[in-house]
Design a protein that fits this description.
binds zinc ion; four-stranded antiparallel sheet; alpha+beta
Length: about 450
């Protein structure tokens, strides 16, 4: 017995020497309560910030006041802030010991449209856009993202004994024109500053607050622009034999190009070609010289994208050849790529978000819209982008039942309920960031 006891003691000593004490699991319930308390205490400030930004939106690369406002907030929190990164963007860094660098991104820009929500803090601001005067509105919810971004920074600083590493909070301009992420990267985002180990972003959407939607892999689509000018020979509408009719070519192209989708693309893969503008002619009895067609091409996978681009080009050329017309002018412009959510990063965040949101965390299909957050992933940073709802559940259900659903993003009626939406955004983002720090600390 004595010998057994001694060998057990030796075994115990060996175990203690070789097995590190297990790091306790993240106590999500306690952290969530702490985050909620932080938001409750800070809410008057967040509400004022949200409503001010909402009432005074700025368009892509014009976000001077918005950016300055966020810079002041982050400096007051103790972040080291660099402004004018990628024209109107900003980078805010906060070091808290050894550990990974985690990036959290918000957008800064609004849309050139009139807000029609009737809210007392609705935007009535106007600006000049492409040489024309236009109203400006935060109808995509980027103001919700900014308030959540500031709230997350505050919550993480309040919990700084829970993590070690560096926060890299970036405010990105010009998401709506798909140019801001590239502008920041081109201005040295990952060379003048440290390239982050992980990056998170969120986006508001037209469903109930308290819900968080996420995806593994593709979360948004590849976006390519289509501009085709069919060149014919104009003349009298009563003497078509003397003309080459570009309107006919445009019409054929618009119909035939859909067979690229229905006959050439794998039917189980996502792909869209939509024609949004057709411009030609001035009068009913004149066959014009040319016709232009503008459209958008969306896909999730590179091979599907390549197939569609080739099909669009071939169809346009064939349509012109069929009319014995000169070759069309074809411009297919590469837009933003699909956001690819990193499976490892998502699995880590998913665990914490599930514990916090339960059934209100939902794995959903990818969005068919596009988003330039993907550019940071293209630079080799594992990404996760998730979505949060903005409406009261009862109102949302009643509206669906009535057959007139509540407005979605880019609608003039898009009107998030600020407090519970920002609460969802801050809670989800803070827990996602904490989960990534925690996972890193476990050495996985
Ligand atoms: Zn948008
Ligand atoms: Zn947006």
């Amino acid at each position: 017995m004595k010998r057994l006891a001694r060998s057990l003691a030796v075994f115990a000593t060996l175990c203690a020497a070789t097995i590190l004490p297990a790091r306790a699991e993240m106590d999500v319930a306690r952290l969530k309560a702490a985050i909620e308390a932080s938001i409750e205490a800070d809410y008057p400030g967040l509400d004022a910030l949200y409503k001010d930004i909402h009432a005074h939106p700025e368009l892509a690369f014009q976000e001077v006041k918005t950016s300055a406002r966020l810079a002041a907030e982050m400096r007051a929190l103790g972040f080291e802030v660099t402004e004018k990164v990628g024209r109107t963007g900003l980078v805010a860094i906060y070091g808290n010991g050894d550990g990974p660098t985690i990036m959290v991104r918000t957008e800064l820009d609004a849309l050139p449209m009139e807000e029609k929500t009737g809210l007392d803090y609705a935007s009535r601001d106007k600006t000049t856009w492409n040489g024309r005067e236009t109203f400006v509105a935060h109808s995509c919810g980027h103001d919700i993202h900014m308030a959540s971004w500031i709230g997350t920074a505050k919550a993480l600083l309040g919990l700084k004994d829970q993590w070690r590493g560096t926060l890299m909070f970036i405010a990105q301009p010009a998401e709506e024109i798909g140019a801001g992420a590239m502008a920041m990267l081109g201005d040295g985002l990952f060379t003048r500053f440290k390239k982050p180990d992980f990056a998170f972003a969120l986006h508001a959407g037209g469903y109930p607050h308290g819900y968080v939607n996420y995806r593994v892999g593709a979360g948004s689509s590849n976006y390519d622009g289509l501009y085709i000018q069919f060149r014919g020979r104009g003349g009298h509408g009563a003497m078509p034999q003397r003309t080459i009719d570009p309107v006919m070519m445009a019409a054929r192209f618009i119909v035939d190009v859909q067979t690229v989708i229905s006959r050439e693309k794998d039917p189980t893969e996502f792909g869209i070609v939509s024609i949004g503008a057709v411009n030609s002619g001035t009068a009913g009895n004149i066959i014009p010289d040319d016709a232009t067609v503008l459209g958008t091409i969306r896909s999730f996978k590179p091979e599907v994208r390549a197939k569609m681009l080739a099909g669009v080009e071939r169809t346009a050329k064939a349509v012109a050849a069929m009319s014995d017309a000169p070759a069309p002018l074809i411009q297919l412009t590469e837009g933003t790529k699909a956001v690819i959510n990193d499976p490892g990063l998502v699995a880590t965040a998913e665990k914490a978000l599930k514990a916090a949101f339960g059934e209100r965390l939902r794995l959903t299909p990818a969005n068919t819209t596009s988003e330039d957050f993907s550019e940071f992933g293209g630079s080799g940073v594992p990404l996760m982008m998730f979505n949060i709802g903005v409406y009261d559940l009862e109102k949302w259900m009643a509206a669906n039942k009535s057959g007139t659903p509540l407005a979605g993003n880019h609608s003039p009626q898009f009107a998030p309920v600020p407090k519970p939406t920002i609460l969802t955004g801050v809670t989800a983002m803070t827990l996602a960031v904490l989960s990534a720090f925690d996972q890193h600390a476990r050495g996985k």
